Amino acid sequence: MTPLLVFLLACIATYLGTVETAFSALMRLSLRLVAERNGRSQVVGRYLDDPVEFFVPVRLLIGACWALIVVLLIRAVRLDAPHRSLIVFVTAVGKVVVSEHVI
Questions:
Q1: Which H/E stretch holds residue 101?
Q2: Residue-level pLDDT at 78
Q3: Under DSSP, is residue 54 helix (H, G, I), strand (E, B) or coil?
Q4: Residues contacting 85, CB < 8 A, separation 6+
Q5: Is 39 helix (H, G, I), strand (E, B) or coil?
Q6: Where are the alpha helices (DSSP H) in 40-81?
Q7: CA distance 36 to 2
Q8: Reported pTM
Q9: How far apart (Å, rounded) are the C-alpha atoms in residues 103 and 95?
Q10: How do residues 20-45 score in pLDDT, each as one tens digit?
Q11: Low-confidence ranges of the chain (pLDDT < 70)
């Protein structure tokens, strides 16, 4: 059950990171002008007017996903030896790098 939860949380974090990247690309002036000319919806318009309303909650959700992943990894590994904490740290950093920066 733990590997499935870790995988699902990593997928959620990747999805949120992708949405954040797409929105930050939309904040570029050329794409923003196209969105505003084509008649933006109320939801997108609110976030385009004040982008912090979007970026802060998304970053908090991504951070919560990674914190839960680390907690699940610690629970799965049972930290009773120092080398196991290194395993958890390397695994967590690897997941963050792969799903937030590579993808």
A1: none
A2: 78
A3: helix
A4: 79
A5: coil
A6: 42-49, 52-77
A7: 44
A8: 0.64
A9: 11
A10: 887 777 766 666 666 666 665 666 66
A11: 27-50, 99-103
